[in-house]
Amino acid sequence: MYPTTPPSDPKEVLTKMYDLPRVNSQRLELADKYQLLQPQLLGDTFRPPNYLVQQILVARDVKLYYDPQQTSKYKRSDWFALVGVDPCYEQRDLKTSYRVWQEEINPFVVVDLRYSDTEIKDLEPKLPRENPSLSKWEVYEQILRIPYYILFDSKTNHLRVRQLVDNRYKDLKLSDPRIWMNGVQLGLGLWQGTYQGINRRWLRWYDGSLKWILTHEEREQKRAELLAKQLIVLGIDAGNS
């Protein structure tokens, strides 16, 4: 039967809707912007001193295809880096996908950014009866053998690091929110600062002197400052002569 009660007054319905608590649109906008900028900052500061620039590849929000027998299977990561690439390697487009059987090199480090309400989703192994597909960490650990799997909760600023030890991931107990990686002679830690207009805690790479690796903009600014100083010195010298 059709309902016998008369329809609600549209004005009454709209009034009730506007009385509901609204989501902070500015907060959502910042969160979305952060999800784009954090991988950018990681790539901008990933400069291993023991590798040539041509031997380094970074990718963000790319599908990582790992099974040549089932070519449709993939895991999507927020950011990952490869090192030791042949300098003569013809770089393919990493904007959408990366197929390990074609590239013949696996990532050295993978970073996933996650929120508190979804952090349990893909961290632990799944029993066959629950889900026949492998979880992310199983693929990274057992198939790709990725040395470092980094998880960062952007809401709580909690850093979780899994390192491959004897072919098994080991959760590292961090006294400080940072991890040194000998393979690339770099460390990854939490930096409080402003990047692209947003002030918060960021994941950022640092060197052996515990100094944060400069971003492209910071390098350009430093270069400009040095040039300005040189011009001043030259101007003074010229005036004195």
TrEMBL record:
Keywords: Endonuclease, Hydrolase, Nuclease. GO terms for molecular function: endonuclease activity. InterPro entries: Uma2. This is Uma2 family endonuclease. Residues 55-176 form the Putative restriction endonuclease domain. It comes from the Bacteria. It comes from Limnofasciculus baicalensis BBK-W-15.
